[in-house]
Amino acid sequence: MAPSTRIVAEYAKSSRSSCKKCSKTIDAKSLRLGSISRDARGFDITKWHHPACFSFASESLASAQEIAGFDSLKSPDQEALKELVDASDKALEEVDKKEEDEEKDPEERKTKKAKLSNSEGKVPDIVFSISDVKNKYKDATLAPKWKAFQTVIFLERDDGLRDSSKIAAFDFDGCLAKTSVKRVGADAWSLMYPSIPDKLQSLYNDGYKLVIFTNESNIDRWKNKRQVAVDSKIGRLNNFIKTVKAPVQVFIACGVGKSDGQAEDPFRKPKPGMWHLMEQHFNSGISIDMDQSFYVGDAAGRENDHSDADIKFAQAVGLKFHVPDEYFGM
Predict the structure, then answer these.
(1) Among the four 50, 53, 127, 270, which has the fewest Cβ within 10 Å?
(2) Which Pfam families has this protein been placed in (predicted)?
(3) Residue 195: pLDDT band with limits 50, 70, 90
(4) Residue of 187, 155, 193, 152 whose CA lies nearest to 174
(5) Is residue 103 part of a domain?
(6) What is the number of other CB atoms lying within 10 angstroms of the CB of residue 211?
(7) How far apart are CA 289 and CA 108, in angstroms?
(8) Pairing of strands 146-149, 152-155
(9) How many domains does the chain have?
(10) Which of 73, 90, 125 marks a domain boundary?
(11) Pick from 50, 73, 96: which residue ends a domain?
């Protein structure tokens, strides 16, 4: 880091500061990051940001521990900052690689840019702050590595996971795992198709990031047994990941749909909120190549399907869609 510039982390003492990037208020007691530079008169000038709005690209930062005030932060915020710094490093590597590719073939670059998901187009911005990430979902405690943001529970950083421009996305129940609403528990599942482990490992080895997008409204509905619902869903997903021996990023939409008489949750499929959350905040800023990315789900609106949520989710995002029996070759 240049000697005239440094980064500081602290909890806002009031709501008087605003983020220099998004211009929105930084709430009191929420985590904020400041870039401190010295003006011509020798006075320090601090520009405050929400953590998710802060860019580490212009700073030479070896690790999050170099941030002033890091040791005074709560443990979850320390871990979140480490992940932000790591993600920034990966994004810079991707940018360097992209610049090399651009120098090789400008025409190819022009064609490819039109096919990237977040290069253009009207996509709603999801305001995301580290201070909004919790270790509990309402009154239910989450397993290690799992976090909650609004009505989404997520496993962001499975061991070995790498962000990518190529996304292989899947539904869970009825697609990757055979489950039943009558059975509860971490072990109450089986592989939907025997070819799944080899298929996922092959995708991972080919540079794809594996992502699961799954609805689970029972987590919101079972108010008196929410911990049971959370432990059952997360337990099944953890055991599935162990079985397939490939790192997976997971997003669980816990909210309810229109049929429950409440406002429809923006993260619940077929709404594209989970995809946009991943794309904007959990892919290291890497643009997604929609030509190579795809989504597999069983709710395709066929005669015996329980709904059409999966195919409509794929259509809303702009992904190629496959049903499981077709994709897994059964």
Answers:
(1) 127
(2) PNK3P, zf-PARP
(3) very high
(4) 193
(5) no
(6) 22
(7) 13
(8) antiparallel
(9) 2
(10) 73
(11) 73
